[in-house]
């Protein structure tokens, strides 16, 4: 009698172990799907795009024929847009973060702003495009210009920067502020000379990541009318422009195979740019992480 | 006499030092008063953005509904804004969007959740260290790149399996949107699972539970609110996704349940119209805002719902 129970028990345990083992394998497989997808994506793009990754791509303007067609205007447009939006979004994003972390009193208004920021982060990017179209392009009459695009993208990345900067500021120990106050420093002196210098690496990491989000965005810029065919370089901030993802989209929407290859090589350039930015963000993070 | 002179020089020096000190002090106090105001203005930009979005959408949508009755928009089953006879029933766009979202969630939620369980309960530290950055990279890939991926790799695969699949089909776009949101489901669920205290797991292990039983009967139920919130956010993200569906799902608004058909989502329609240089004030131009409003309201409600679930049903330990 006892034996039967023991056998049943042993069997039951073996069954549970087997179940554990089977699902373990299943979980590993599921996790590797993401990795496999990333590898497939990269290989697919490299195979299609490497052939057209030639100097022409960087020195020529887009043209009707795929051969010799380039993305000079898109590359320059992306860089210009970054140069305009980086300082603006840095100032407003970091300013907002400092206010929320150092100055704001814990109350209903602060909670509202905080809730608003997390909600904004979930708004689809194309809705920012609609706002940009109505506000910057029409109302402020900036037309389809570089500055209208840069401002729209600034609004898009602000929540990301604010959240990252808030985390960096929060990580600065309270003792640092106390020491500064003890020396007779005012609030602003403490914030600007004691807190911000030690929070800066974290803040910059956030800003770089936000910028890398911005250079990959297509939809909002299509909305505000970044042109898909630009055979000139923007001379001022009110000129029309294009960016790499829009150029890629343009090539992708053409039926010929050659343009698809061009799109793939455009994507390679975009991904390399993103990789460089992410890499510098990681370097920055690792270098200064210990110093706080 | 020279002594007297030196004295006055020294006196004037102290005076100027005092002045400098006063000036510095004044500047310090001005900064101290001014900066909070400036910083508050920075913080209010985010609120103004929300207000701007809402006002823009409401005013333009209101004008649109002056021309097209709101009932026809919400319940009309034909969307044909550019080709006469014009018709503005949003349901085909909505059904297209929901089909993409449904396929995407079917892909992303099981895979994302399984990856989260693996990373939080099974994976050794070394594996975690490799997998997590890879998932982060996957989350950072621009959507236009995913669009290319859908068109050049997934669609041909689907066409090999199903003969009736067109170049543009909902299935391909849906799968790729799903792949795009896997990292989001995974990292949010994993956060929720790692917040479950170690003592709960240890208690279960002490009773002789296997790892699977600990994961499915202890950790997942304890982290359930976070997991559901991550699924809702993923759903909302899939609804708002634009470039993948624009590139791979086609531009034929039609009410179908066949995922191999070409469809059009709300986001893809907005892109299509804004590419066409539609003049300001026309019905087509207004339709962008009406569709955008629909999109905004849906995603906004979902985001609020996710936050509500995460807060309301959180198990506190």
TrEMBL record, chain A:
Source organism of the structure: Paenibacillus arenilitoris
Domain ABC transmembrane type-1: 75-280
Main location, first listed in the record: membrane
Record GO biological process: phosphate ion transmembrane transport
GO MF term (any one): phosphate transmembrane transporter activity
Gene: pstA
Pfam families named among the record's database cross-references: BPD_transp_1
Name of this chain's protein: Phosphate transport system permease protein PstA
InterPro entries: MetI-like, MetI-like_sf, Phosphate_PstA
Its membrane topology: Multi-pass membrane protein
This protein's GO CC annotations: plasma membrane
Family affiliation: Belongs to the binding-protein-dependent transport system permease family. CysTW subfamily.
Gene3D superfamilies: MetI-like (1.10.3720.10)
Keywords: Cell membrane, Membrane, Transmembrane, Transmembrane helix, Transport
Subcellular location: Cell membrane
Transmembrane regions listed in the UniProt entry: 21-47, 79-100, 112-140, 146-165, 214-232, 262-284
UniProtKB/TrEMBL annotation, chain B:
UniProt keyword Lipid biosynthesis present: no
CDD domains: TM_PBP2
GO MF, one annotated term: phosphate transmembrane transporter activity
GO CC terms, sorted: plasma membrane
Domain ABC transmembrane type-1: 94-306
Record Gene3D superfamilies: MetI-like (1.10.3720.10)
InterPro entries reported for this sequence: MetI-like, MetI-like_sf, Phosphate_PstC
The name this protein goes by in its record: Phosphate transport system permease protein
Organism phylogeny: Bacteria, Bacillati, Bacillota, Bacilli, Bacillales
């Amino acid at each position: 009698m006892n034996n039967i129970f023991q056998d049943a028990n042993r069997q039951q345990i073996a069954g549970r172990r087997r179940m554990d083992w089977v699902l373990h394998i299943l979980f590993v497989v599921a996790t590797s799907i993401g990795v496999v997808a990333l590898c497939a994506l990269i290989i697919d793009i490299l195979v299609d795009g490497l052939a057209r990754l030639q100097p022409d791509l960087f020195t020529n303007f887009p043209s009707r024929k795929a051969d010799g067609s380039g993305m000079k205007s898109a590359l320059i447009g992306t860089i210009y847009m970054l140069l305009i939006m980086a300082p603006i979004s840095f100032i407003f994003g970091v300013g907002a973060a400092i206010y929320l972390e150092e100055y704001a009193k814990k109350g209903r208004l602060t909670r509202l702003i905080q809730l608003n920021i997390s909600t904004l982060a979930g708004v689809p990017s194309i809705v920012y495009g609609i706002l940009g179209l109505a506000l910057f392009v029409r109302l402020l009459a900036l037309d389809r210009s570089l500055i209208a695009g840069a401002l729209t993208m600034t609004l898009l990345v602000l929540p990301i920067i604010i959240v990252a900067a808030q985390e960096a500021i929060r990580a600065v120990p309270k003792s640092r502020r106390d020491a500064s106050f003890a020396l007779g420093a005012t609030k602003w002196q403490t914030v600007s000379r004691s807190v911000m210098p030690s929070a800066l690496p974290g803040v910059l990491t956030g800003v770089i990541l936000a910028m890398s989000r911005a250079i990959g965005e297509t939809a909002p810029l299509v909305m505000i009318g970044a042109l898909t065919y630009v055979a000139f370089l923007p001379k001022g901030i009110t000129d029309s422009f294009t960016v790499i993802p829009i150029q890629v989209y343009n090539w992708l929407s053409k039926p010929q195979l050659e343009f698809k290859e061009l799109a793939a090589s455009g994507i390679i350039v975009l991904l390399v740019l993103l990789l460089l930015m992410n890499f510098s963000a990681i370097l920055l993070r690792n270098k200064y992480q210990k110093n706080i | 006499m020279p002594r007297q002179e030196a004295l006055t020089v020294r006196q004037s020096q102290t005076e100027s030092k005092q002045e400098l000190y006063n000036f510095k002090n004044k500047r310090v106090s001005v900064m101290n008063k001014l900066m909070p105001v400036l910083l508050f203005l920075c913080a209010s930009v985010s609120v103004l953005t929300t207000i701007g979005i809402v006002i823009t959408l409401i005013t333009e949508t209101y004008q649109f509904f002056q021309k097209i009755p709101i009932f026809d928009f919400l319940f009309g089953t034909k969307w044909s804004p550019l080709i006469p006879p014009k018709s503005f029933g949003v349901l085909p766009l909505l059904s297209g969007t929901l089909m993409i979202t449904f396929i995407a969630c079917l892909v992303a939620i099981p895979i994302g959740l399984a990856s989260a369980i693996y990373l939080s309960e099974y994976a050794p530290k070394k594996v975690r260290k490799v997998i997590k950055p890879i998932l982060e990279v996957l989350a950072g890939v621009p959507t236009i790149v995913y669009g290319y991926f859908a068109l050049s790799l997934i669609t041909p695969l689907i066409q090999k399996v199903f003969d009736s699949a067109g170049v543009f089909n909902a299935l391909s776009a849906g799968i790729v949107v799903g792949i795009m949101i896997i990292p989001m489901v995974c990292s949010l669920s994993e956060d929720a699972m790692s917040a479950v205290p170690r003592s709960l797991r240890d208690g279960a292990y002490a009773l002789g539970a296997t790892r699977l039983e600990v994961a499915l009967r202890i950790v997942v139920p304890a982290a359930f609110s976070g997991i559901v919130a991550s699924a809702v956010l993923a759903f909302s993200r899939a609804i708002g996704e634009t470039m993948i569906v624009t590139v791979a799902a086609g531009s034929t608004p039609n009410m179908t349940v066949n995922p191999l058909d070409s469809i059009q989502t709300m986001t893809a329609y907005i892109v299509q119209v804004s590419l066409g240089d539609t003049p300001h004030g026309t019905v087509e131009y207004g339709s962008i805002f009406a569709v955008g409003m629909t999109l905004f309201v849906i995603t906004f409600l979902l985001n609020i719902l996710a936050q509500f679930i995460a807060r309301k049903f959180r198990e506190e330990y």
